[in-house]
Automatic annotation (TrEMBL):
Transmembrane segments: 31-53, 65-87, 107-126, 147-165, 191-218, 239-260, 275-297
Compositional bias per record (Polar residues), positions renumbered to this chain: 346-357
Organism encoding this protein: Oreochromis aureus (Israeli tilapia)
PANTHER family: G-PROTEIN COUPLED RECEPTOR 182 (PTHR24226:SF0), G-PROTEIN COUPLED RECEPTOR 182 AND ESTROGEN RECEPTOR 1 (PTHR24226)
InterPro entries recorded: G10D_rcpt, GPCR_Rhodpsn, GPCR_Rhodpsn_7TM, GPER1-like
Protein name: G-protein coupled receptors family 1 profile domain-containing protein
Length: 357
């Protein structure tokens, strides 16, 4: 950003030298960011891989919520795979050593996840609400026909389109050291404000309104339902909303304040501006915690998913010779028990991944 403060002096000293008295520890920030990225990479990779591995065999299920869960995990896996580049960039203090192509590709993948994860979470919550309140209504992601793939492709396509609007100005810039930056050649302020506003509306405000509203309605419907098997889980729907807001609100709040500073550089003090730009990379990293939170909330807290995970793991354990030892009667009993779905919950269940399991 370019500020026109060159004519503002106090006793012959530029204004920003007088006002900027805050000393921020960038070394501690680099260490903290590296550790946070490492945590998200290791835990998020394990969680989302398990979610896709367990649910992939049921991807053609009529359960639209399950279909959304798979897409959310695939989206999170995409951004998790590029985190090593971010970790090295943070360690090298924003120096980019992997060329122009990877600069643009990694940023494109990051922004696609930025949108697609929120879109599929919002549609998942809508699907969950309609399955409780209107069981006979049509699904957004029906098992048969082309509607499921059209809606799914539309959400991914919209995410790609919004990401390209930003990624077109991402490039490798050679200053003192090479760096991967978003910096248009002309009309920087107009571009930054426009892209940030689109991000605020499409990635946060719109999905947050859907997620919070539907989860409140789901909680009310579940409390009135007579077939809820575990009423203690009703509070989970509010946790879904809270986690989404906690992950994304700090990022959008800092971005919004940066927009204000870009439009009117005299609004905030120099120290405040320093804090904003210092904290931007921190809240950007915090937003990626959704890659760790989503699998835990929408899958591992679900009894249905845990049962499917155990059954999937058992399928890969060698059992040769077992059938000969236990006899035909025990085999028949095991087969009958295996036909049951231990994770099947009522239609009024508040767990997203229990719907239609």
């Amino acid at each position: 950003m370019t500020f026109n403060h060159s004519l503002d002096f106090l006793n012959g000293t530029p204004w920003y030298v007088v006002e900027c008295t805050l000393q921020l520890n960038t070394t501690s920030r680099r260490i903290a960011l590296f550790l946070m990225y490492l945590f998200i990479f290791m835990v998020g990779l394990m969680e989302n891989t398990l979610v896709v591995w367990v649910n992939w065999r049921r991807r053609h299920s009529s359960n639209g919520v399950l279909f959304c869960i798979i897409n959310v995990s695939l989206s999170d896996l995409m951004v998790i795979m590029i985190l090593p580049f971010f970790m090295m960039e943070v360690t090298l203090d924003q120096v980019w050593l992997w060329g122009r192509f990877l600069c643009k590709v990694t940023h494109l993948i990051y922004v696609i996840n930025f949108y697609s994860s929120s879109f599929f979470l919002a549609f998942m919550t809508l699907e969950r609400y309609f399955s409780l309140s209107r069981p006979s209504s049509s699904s957004f992601f029906p098992a048969g026909g082309r509607k499921r793939w059209v809606v799914c492709g539309g959400l991914w396509g919209l995410s790609l389109l919004l990401a390209l609007l930003e990624n077109v100005h991402v490039d490798l810039l050679e200053w003192d050291e090479p760096g991967c930056y978003m910096l248009p050649e002309y009309s920087y302020t107009e571009w930054f404000v426009t892209v940030s506003f689109l991000c605020l509306v499409f990635q946060f405000l719109g999905p947050a309104a859907v997620i919070i509203t539907c989860n409140v309605l789901i909680a009310r419907a579940a409390k009135r339902a007579t077939d809820v098997q575990n009423r203690r889980d009703v509070w989970l729907v509010h946790v879904y909303s809270l986690v989404f807001v906690m992950c994304w609100l700090p990022y959008h709040l800092v971005t919004f304040l940066m927009i204000i500073d870009d439009l009117d550089p005299y609004v905030f003090s120099c120290n405040m501006v320093e804090v904003l730009y210092f904290s931007f990379s921190v809240v950007q990293c915090i937003s990626l915690l959704h890659c760790v939170a989503n699998p835990f909330l929408y899958n591992f807290l679900s009894k249905s998913f845990r049962n499917n995970l155990i059954n999937t793991m058992l399928n890969y354990i060698p059992r040769e010779g077992t059938a000969e030892r236990v006899g035909p009667r025990a085999n028949a009993k095991t087969a009958n028990e295996g036909g049951r779905d231990p994770g099947k919950l009522s239609n009024a269940s508040t767990s997203h991944s229990d719907v239609g399991s």
